[in-house]
Amino acid sequence: MAALALLVLFCAHSSLAQVHNLALTPEQLTAKVKVLEDIANVLGKQLIQNQLFVEERIRSDGMSGVKKVRLYREGTSPYYADTHVAQSAIAIHDHANYDRTLGIGEFIGVLNGVEFRTRHNDYKLKMPSTTSRTYHETEDILFPSVPPEVLHKTTIQEQIVEMREWFRAFKEQNTTIRDYRPYFRPLLCALEGAWTLAKDIEESFPSDRHHLDATSWEDMAEKISFTSYTGNKHNLENFAFLPSKLYSMEGGYPQFAQWNYRVICHPVSFDVPTSYFKLDDDLGHRLANDLTLKRAPFSRSARFKVNEFDRERQTTYTTLDRMMSELPGLDNYLANLTDKTYGLVANDISQAENTLNAGYYHRWYHYSEMGAMGDSVNHRGFNDENLWVAMTTQSHIMPLSTNYCVQDQCVRDTRRVTFAVPLEVIYATPILSWNPYNVAFYPADPKTDTLAQSVTANGRNGGSTPGTAYNGTNRENYYRTPVGFYASSDVEADTADTAKGSVGVLDKQGIVRQMAASGPRIITPDIQGVGTVRLRYPIFPVHSEGSTVGRELVALKEIVMKMTQYAHLLGEGQGGYLPSNPDVHFILAETYQNPPGLHSHDLVLTGAENAAVLAGNDTLVVTSLALGHTHELKVHFDKTLSAYVYVTCDGMASCWDGHARRLVLDE
Ligand SMILES: *[C@@H]1O[C@H](CO)[C@@H](O)[C@H](O)[C@H]1NC(C)=O
Ligand SMILES: *[C@@H]1O[C@H](CO)[C@@H](O)[C@H](O)[C@H]1NC(C)=O
Ligand SMILES: *[C@@H]1O[C@H](CO)[C@@H](O)[C@H](O)[C@H]1NC(C)=O
Ligand SMILES: *[C@@H]1O[C@H](CO)[C@@H](O)[C@H](O)[C@H]1NC(C)=O
Fold first, then answer.
1. CA of 471 to the centre of ligand 3 (A)
2. Does 109 score more than 90 pLDDT?
3. Ligand 3 pocket: which of 468, 471, 508 to mutate (most atoms within 8 A of CB)
4. What is the pLDDT of residue 115?
5. Can you tell me which atom of ligand 3 is nearest the CA of 451?
6. Which of 110, 135, 102 lies closest to 210, judged by CA?
7. 3-class DSSP assignment, residue 500
8. Are 281 and 305 in contact (CB under 8 A)?
9. Per-residue DSSP letters for 11-65?
10. Is 633 helix (H, G, I), strand (E, B) or coil?
11. Which alpha helices (DSSP H) does 536-649 contain, by range?
């Protein structure tokens, strides 16, 4: 926008010049216009450089993730103030009276060096289209069905008792009680951002309760500029800071892109055990709220990380990578794109020989090029743990081009990409579709559909008399769970929550039934014989934890919180006990083969992996990087040699660059 203003300035200036220099010849005028065009072009290109400089600066400041939520509380010490956690992690809250709405408040996020601020998010359980590539086309995520064991019960009370058993099985993750896995389905919801070419303001994801409250991008920018200057708040939380940028001076004309984001979900194809969610300790919040580690995981303020291992360790491809790899970018589920940047094909890291479908989100990829640089395992971005990228063919997304030349044969390569980070995992439960009293449901939009409006017609407000009870249910009044299912409807509540404890709903016979809200919840109310059940696990990364200071601080927290375990690492604790099953360090012997030249690699087996290898279970390990490549080794313990060896290297019998098979213990 600044460039446009400059252009206008130049034009105004040149017309003034005309008035003052009536004596200019047409040749002189043409020359002057040429000079002005050159200046505009150079300034435009400098603006592109300045934008790049800002993005590069933010990229190196931390990782893609969440920075902060709006501040509502502060105190005598800085740790009382809201961070990425307010009363809840990224201000998540419930709207359980809606069929598929999840509450998330306003927050500041960073995706690949682009910092932006969201509106109040309240998003819906929707996924990209499975049948079309149309830009932003989505589908409702199907809710799990109700187990037949529940439906086959004759009375409502028997159904309730049976349904509780399924919740108990899920809570205890015990498939012997009931095999809950087909009915408690994990949904991955991600924050997705992109530089778009949208000229008009564009609502990139629907919400029942919030929308961008502006007539154009310019109007939104002015409103944000004003409220940021004065410190005022828009009471409905419907403003967002979404930057725009000058990204190219195509033929001397400035090309602008507009940042936008959305929250998009995906039904994960496999079961994710709840034990994989390990608490990420926000110490300041715990201190300010006197929250013990024991209680923290049951609080709305809890933030988790996906860690399927029994300890902290180095990783490449994890369960989180597997989940994210199922989420497509903007070509929706039909995406089928190969990344062939600079003549190298990106391969799938989980199936080394397969080409990566770069239309799906990934952070690790694998180049397979025998010769100079050999095999290499790569991560998207320069140093950003949570940069997940997907390529797209959507013309709505900003293109960038680069020249690629092989022996004077040059091609101009163009790419369009989008970015994402995981936000949360939500378990969809059979409660979402269970309707034991068979009350009417009108699925059309209650804002426009008269049948859906009949639920609340004539002042019906969920009262307990036939005249005031809701007449059936709709998407905004989704009350179909018999209140008797819960022991009480008290949950740790938040001021942003909307559902009432229980309401009266008329069934098809006109009888008033007391019902509880059936939409998604962070934590269920107390279920008799089961207790409360956590259903939402926020797993968003935190921007500052990607900085050098952040990484050091997390290490310090870990050591201080588990001082006995790490006594041997403390300055004063040199005499402390060594861990009972320490990591085992190896060196992959030096190779002299050229290319690539003299080098070796390091590798580490965790205590558990070492035990497995010694017991005869060969284990895959990725070595350290040397001369731009790594190797994936299958490590084996050879009893006759009494030595560790590799049996495969990058899937082949020996390493392409000639490392000896025997691993050297590094003591
Ligand atoms: C799972 O439930 C069964 C049946 O109630 C019980 O016998 C078993 O001990 C439980 N398993 C675990 C690991 O708690
Ligand atoms: C993706 O495209 C390639 C050719 O470019 C084709 O061989 C492959 O079958 C396609 N995959 C899917 C899932 O459509
Ligand atoms: C409830 O709604 C249905 C469908 O619109 C209608 O037929 C019925 O008369 C309504 N019942 C009452 C008590 O208003
Ligand atoms: C070895 O692998 C088998 C099969 O995956 C597993 O059952 C066993 O527990 C493993 N042994 C060790 C020591 O990890």
1. 6
2. yes
3. 471
4. 98
5. 5
6. 102
7. coil
8. no
9. HHHHHHHHHHTTT--HHHHHHHHHHHHHHHHHHHHHHHHHHHHHHHHHHHHS-SE
10. strand
11. 548-561, 607-614
Q: What is the pTM of this model?
A: 0.87
Asked if 579 and 608 count as a contact pair (C-beta separation under 8 A), the reply is no
pLDDT in tens, 333-352: 999 999 998 888 899 988 76
- Whose CA is closest to atom 2 on ligand 3? 471
Asked if the model's pLDDT at residue 491 lies above 50, the reply is no
Query: CA dist 553 to 282, 310, 548, 570, Å?
Result: 11, 22, 9, 15
pLDDT band, very low/low/confident/very high, at 2 (cuts 50, 70, 90): very low
Over residues 588-627, the pLDDT tens digits come to 999 988 878 889 999 999 888 999 999 999 999 988 888 8
What pLDDT, on a 0 to 100 scale, did the predictor assign at position 581?
77
Q: Are strands 512-517 and 473-474 parallel, antiparallel or unpaired?
A: unpaired
Q: Does residue 451's CB lie within 6 angstroms of at least one atom of ligand 1?
A: no
Report CA torsion sign: 205, 207, 210, 213: positive
CA of 372 to the centre of ligand 2 (A): 29
If pLDDT is split at 50, 70 and 90, which confidence band does 236 have?
A: confident
Residue bearing tokens 């060969």: 618
| DSSP secondary structure letters along 187-229 | EEEEEEEEEE--SS----S--SS-----SSHHHHHHHHHHHHH
The residue whose C-alpha atom lies closest to atom 14 belonging to ligand 4 is 612
Token pair 């109310």: residue: 525
The tokens describing 351, both together, are 């199936």
H or E element that contains 73: none
What percent of the chain has a predicted confidence (pLDDT) above 90? 75
- What integer pLDDT is reported at residue 498 of this predicted model? 61
> Ligand 1 pocket: which of 165, 174, 177, 530 to mutate (most atoms <8 Å of CB)?
174
Closest C-alpha to ligand 4, atom 6? 617
- Rounded to an integer, the average pLDDT of 255-273 is 97
Task: Check pocket membership of 173 for ligand 1, CB cut-off 6 A.
Answer: no
DSSP string, 526-548: PBTTTB--B-EEE---BGGGGSH
